[in-house]
Amino acid sequence: MKLSGRSLIGFGSSTATNEVFYAMNPKSGERLEPAFFAALPDEVDRAVRLAHQAFATYDRVSARDRGAFLRTIAANIESIAEDLAERAERETALPKARLQAETARTCGQLQLFAQVVEEGSWVQARIDRAHPNRKPAPKPDIRSMLRPLGPVVVFGASNFPLAFSVAGGDTASALAAGNPVIFKGHPAHPGTSELVGLAVQHAVRQCNLPEGVFSLLFDSGNRVGAALIKHPLVKAAGFTGSRTAGRILMDFAAARPEPIPFFAEMSSTNPVFILPGALRERADSIAAGLYASFTLGAGQFCTKPGLVFLPALAEASGFVNRLQLSINESAPFHLLTPGIRSSYGAAISARKAKASVRLVAEKPPKGTAEESSVGGALFETDARSFLADEKLAAQIFGPVTLLIRHSNREEVLEAARNLEGHLTATIHGTEQDLQEFNDLIAILERKVGRLVFNGFPTGVEVSHAMVHGGPYPATSDGRSTSVGSQAIFRFCRPVCYQAFPQAALPDALKDANPLHIWRMIDGEMTREPVRSAVTSIG
Amino acid sequence: MKLSGRSLIGFGSSTATNEVFYAMNPKSGERLEPAFFAALPDEVDRAVRLAHQAFATYDRVSARDRGAFLRTIAANIESIAEDLAERAERETALPKARLQAETARTCGQLQLFAQVVEEGSWVQARIDRAHPNRKPAPKPDIRSMLRPLGPVVVFGASNFPLAFSVAGGDTASALAAGNPVIFKGHPAHPGTSELVGLAVQHAVRQCNLPEGVFSLLFDSGNRVGAALIKHPLVKAAGFTGSRTAGRILMDFAAARPEPIPFFAEMSSTNPVFILPGALRERADSIAAGLYASFTLGAGQFCTKPGLVFLPALAEASGFVNRLQLSINESAPFHLLTPGIRSSYGAAISARKAKASVRLVAEKPPKGTAEESSVGGALFETDARSFLADEKLAAQIFGPVTLLIRHSNREEVLEAARNLEGHLTATIHGTEQDLQEFNDLIAILERKVGRLVFNGFPTGVEVSHAMVHGGPYPATSDGRSTSVGSQAIFRFCRPVCYQAFPQAALPDALKDANPLHIWRMIDGEMTREPVRSAVTSIG
């Protein structure tokens, strides 16, 4: 498949300019053709205006047609899965099998949202029947349902070139809810982005939807992203990336004349608590699972376990030895971008320089010939030092984790109480551990979006109950998830219709319930039609 | 009942200081005893710290006990209804009957939330069963439900001394969801606030809840409010008031090191569209209803219809004459505070000075003896002038509205497209009107939280389907409502439990469904218990 290097603006494409950038193979350092052109300011504006125009039509598209659109996108992506994996491998150095699985996950997400939209109950239809005879005043008929917000901007993440990129979770949920999407591609994988973008653009045509439903804009810097967040016709945005960039964009969104909802997933160190009973019972298997989890994707997962609380027991040394061995035996890791690599190097050096931290294991990169690779690392400290130095809690992207040894229950509870917001927290324990550490669960419930028991936080299931979110700074708004079907609630708001005639109501709110969806009628969940207005006061 | 003038901080009260203020009778200008003392900075801090401590217990309180608490507050308020109406009348000049109705509404809100909490399904429990045999990787058991956020700050509104004040909607929904509340009383009705505050404080004791569950802080200025919004232990806030104050607090909330959800209801002019058929059929009754609506509560409702679009038909003159007559016959209106009165005077003068606006009717206040009263007013302009001058769309608190005459369909659609966010929009039409103006409904759906047909926007029903919200600047976040049972979703967030043993799960997520609530199991709504894990892939 031939890449053009141009942004997709509705059905058109951007112009060639002097502002170009290239993808790079993180393994070889090789520059990848073609050149990609940064979208010009008027092209950014055009994409948003097209989205604004398209919204007037797209928010009227039936659930069936919107579902078909999402399924068409998935089919188009599946049809180029080989090309995608090949290009993405060169742009990210992620293993091909992982990229194939991520493509399947991306299509699965689109299909899940198609299913949610086709089923239809997600709109949370509520109907309160009229009481014309109520005293002192009649009660009017009141009905409400969720409706889309308008043009949504989504920023691609570096670490998931498919599942959190052009047709990833935020795009899928925004489109599912009825919002046009303007996508800002991540500059680390522009070729992968263009391929997926063309698949979406083609689906828009195939489904006879207005062209502004989707645009994909390129830029290697911050200009396009800032312009998008500040554009008055943009109504919401989703972002996955660094805490620094996320907070800058959050502040832009909040400082607009009309502030907009901005969902940023920013940083998380995903604490793991290994409780005494579990450590006694299965130190080895926990160590093996932990190693696999913190080095998965070269440690570049937002759910990477970066803090591991370890009790002072005899079994701890075997546990640490096992991790040490795994690191010493590990193959070199390739990070996604030179920027991530240099941040990793700097973070490892800073940690080594700390008197309160001990380097337990490190596999140094293999000399100049492989200068693009990095080695895994394991540090340890004690709970008191951890509490005294907030930098130790910071996220480091890459194959490293920090063990925190504690000598008693109160120390670990204190450390938990002092955690900031994270995406996940993990507890390894026996049933007896759980009883003894019941208050730990209560503390962690207030700190994270997902609690994992006897497992590992990497591998985020795409399902109805998943919550991939968490209190700030894990995300900008802990009341939301970016993974799973509940993500559809990000990009919509309730609208209420008072005393509306049947013909003017959306289908979801009509008496007959033609969509056969679950609705709340007078406070009761039902799929039954609405009977007539209440005539006596019950 | 004797008032102390002191803030309620948990079970204690604040100290007397020199920073005092008094309530004022808007009718007589008379200063009302006692003096109220502004809470000191360390008292603000103490209230928040108590709330933070209480949260650890209060979020564990069973649904039954939380429901009982809300019902106890309602009962305590009912038991002092006479004292309340008497004090509130003196502080607000609102009619006693209205204040009695508002007290009933306030208790009704508390009871509605009690009912929602006791029923229990509001937590949106979701369960995705494990698939241990799934390939390539087993699927873990994933469950999620809503949980409270933590200490919530609520600001009282001037115009609803009961229903949007100390035990009003935001307090009720925050407490219902499991959050402690720190209430910042509005300085225009401190006595009413103290009475209600004592009723809530007493309920906390009666129900054996920790003292920090509720505090009430007084201040006549901005110091206490700003300190509350900026306090690191505060996790969310609700506000009803002016656009200026709302935006300042919004910006504080967004600029915090840890930004928090901030729900401000700020300003709305609530456009009314009178369509040709309706004007022909019933100009007189619409005029009568409109007059009653825009002068209700002396025009100090956030849902007051402040913009009325009127087609150029012969019947329009009768309609205008009817309104003119009503204004000429009206009794003087008493506004809530000297500040509101002077803003009203300034806005009326500014409007009179505009060449593009005509004063249709005005009942001037009755000389110096009644200097605290104001007269109603009616202005008119044309659609083109309205589009050219955004100040004409601004909210004016008080008994005034603006007629906008338009000469064709396209003019009114253009005006609708240019509206900013409002709480409501109202359409008066026949069935044929609705067909002809179908696109008007589509435009307004994107502009407001509630669409009213052949009715008036004032009188906000407290029910399950109500949406009292709308896009900025009507509110800070159009994805939320401050009235009705959906308001409980403001102050909570989803938390997910992966592979948790039954004993460690909240009751709402246990297999047996001991709370007998509606849950989503593998995507299907049901009240059935969970059967065992999926063993084959379906």
Question: What is this entry, summarized?
Answer:
Two copies of one chain form a homodimer. Chain A is of the alpha/beta class and 538 residues long.
CATH topology of the largest domain in chain A: Aldehyde Dehydrogenase, Chain A, domain 1
Structural class of chain A: alpha/beta
State the helical fraction of chain A.
25-40%
**CATH level 1 name of the largest domain in chain A:** Alpha Beta
CATH-defined superfamily of the largest domain in chain A: Aldehyde Dehydrogenase, Chain A, domain 1
Mean pLDDT of chain A: 95
* Count of discrete domains of chain A: 2
Q: What oligomeric state do these chains adopt? A: homodimer
CATH level-two architecture of the largest domain in chain A:
3-Layer(aba) Sandwich
Rg of chain A over CA atoms, rounded to whole Å, is 25 Å
Biggest chain-to-chain interface with counts = A-B, 82 and 82 residues
The portion of residues forming beta strands of chain A comes to: 15-25%
Number of strands of chain A: 23
How many helices of chain A? The count is 15
Arrangement of strands in the largest sheet of chain A: 15-17-18-13-12-19-20
Largest sheet of chain A, if any? 7 strands, mixed
What general form of chain A does the structure show?
Answer: globular
Between the first and last Cα atoms of chain A, what is the distance in angstroms?
67 Å
Low-confidence stretches of chain A: none
